[in-house]
Design brief:
This protein has 363 residues and is of the alpha/beta class. It has 2 domains: 62-160, 3-Layer(aba) Sandwich (Rossmann fold), CATH 3.40.50; 193-362, Hnrnp arginine n-methyltransferase1 (Distorted Sandwich), CATH 2.70.160. The chain is built from 9 helices and 15 strands. The strands form 3 sheets. Strands 6, 7, 8, 9, 11, 12 and 13 form a 7-stranded antiparallel beta sheet that branches. A 5-stranded parallel beta sheet has the order 3-2-1-4-5, with helices on both faces. A hairpin with an 8-residue loop joins β14 (333-340) and β15 (349-356). The chain is globular. Bound molecules: S-adenosylmethionine. S-adenosylmethionine binds next to α2 and α5.
Length: 363
């Protein structure tokens, strides 16, 4: 082989390598979910980091996004909140933009600049949808919000980081971080007011799923000895449901157990143990405690996941914290304790409920 042919061979190989790299780069830009094949994974250790990975993967799925977009109560709430609160000229961060829908609403409402942030590959679709819909003043930032850097402060932080159990999508740390770094003094977090509820319930008779040891007569078969095998894990005791046929009524008058304003809250201000009472106003079998949330923008603009609210936003689930069945009558008093290690992780929640007989209370 002559020297010039070695040269020709080297040039040809390097050209092919360069073209292949270009092709691969373009392909990765179109298929960002494949990036993991080429980059070493980050060292994920803490529960927060693990959750971050779960969240990133979950929201890359189109079904997760379409469930949210199809939830009319949710979409109407956000559309109206943006219409009422975002002013012409506002500079806005949309934390967790997903398909970019809230950023698009803000842009259409007259926001001057929107920074739309998402760590999931869904953001590639958001960019495309914005371009197709003629939205030009939205900058898409494909990073986790903790890695967002801007050289200006903003008037509004817009977000939908609401988990089934309110705090389980890391709303508080994510919003507080952006608030402390980028929100102008007097700026707006939308939405900012949240309530968490934990209400004793009676289930509908045909939908009740008692503990196995409470089944004493399945066509003459008694399971009560199974109580010896009562599981310890919280997963077993906390049922997740979207099914509205399960809850018959609240036994007491619902009151929030936690009220949060994201303008002022810090993670450490959330109490880890809450004890509260409910007077029974609807008699029945105490089956468990239902967890749900409300988000409020104005008195007449509220988003709810209550299983008994006909206007509940349907895509949110609610959780039932199971209790041993107890027949309670009007006037009885219930004292409930909910203790958590981490509000973001329902597996760390523990609960109990004592019931006092109305007649004994009168003595
Ligand atoms: C509940 S979805 C809301 C999507 C969109 N805003 C909407 O209302 O349809 C939350 C989105 O936030 C993204 N996300 C969650 N935490 C994030 C974070 N800390 N930084 C960037 N994106 C985040 C998820 O990938 C997901 O797309």
């Amino acid at each position: 082989m002559s020297f010039s042919s070695i040269q020709r061979f080297t040039v040809s190989v390097s050209q092919r390598v360069r073209r292949s790299c270009e092709f691969l780069g373009k392909w990765l830009a179109r298929n960002p979910q494949r990036k993991a094949w080429f980059y070493a994974p980050e060292n994920i250790t803490t529960p927060a980091e693990k959750y971050r990975q779960v969240n990133e993967d979950y929201f890359a799925d189109l079904h997760a996004q379409e469930r949210m977009l199809a939830d009319h109560q949710r979409m109407d709430f956000y559309h109206e909140a943006i219409r009422r609160k975002i002013k012409a000229g506002d500079r806005v961060i949309d934390l967790g933009t997903g398909t970019g829908i809230l950023a698009a609403f803000a842009s259409r409402q007259g926001a001057e600049q929107v920074y739309a942030v998402d760590h999931s590959s869904i953001i590639e679709h958001a960019k495309m949808l914005a371009a197709e819909n003629g939205i030009e003043n939205v900058d898409f930032e494909d990073v986790h919000s903790s890695k967002l850097y801007l050289d200006e402060e903003v008037d509004v932080i817009l977000h939908e980081q609401i988990g089934d159990f309110l705090f389980d999508e890391a709303m508080v740390p994510n919003v507080c971080d952006l608030r402390d770094r980028f929100l102008k003094p007097g700026g707006l977090i939308l939405p900012s007011q949240f309530e968490l509820f934990c209400e004793p319930i009676t289930m509908n008779d045909d939908r009740r799923e008692p503990y196995i040891w409470e089944l004493t007569d399945v066509h003459g078969f008694d399971f009560s000895s199974m109580e010896e095998s009562r599981p310890e894990n919280a997963e077993y005791h906390g049922l997740v449901s979207c099914d509205l046929g399960v809850v018959k009524h609240f036994m007491g008058k619902p009151e929030p157990i936690i009220e949060v304003d994201l303008h002022t809250i810090t993670e450490s201000t959330l109490p880890l143990t809450i004890t509260f009472k409910r007077k029974v106003i609807n008699a029945g079998i105490l089956d468990g405690l239902v967890i749900y949330m409300k988000a409020k923008v104005d008195e007449d603009l509220v988003l709810s996941s209550s299983p008994l609210d006909p206007k509940r936003a349907p895509h949110w689930g609610y959780r039932i914290l199971r209790l041993d069945q107890h027949e309670a009558k009007v006037g009885d008093e219930m004292e409930i304790t909910l203790a958590v290690k981490d509000w973001a992780d329902p597996e760390t929640w523990r609960w109990s409920c004592g019931v006092w007989d109305a007649e004994q209370l009168e003595e």
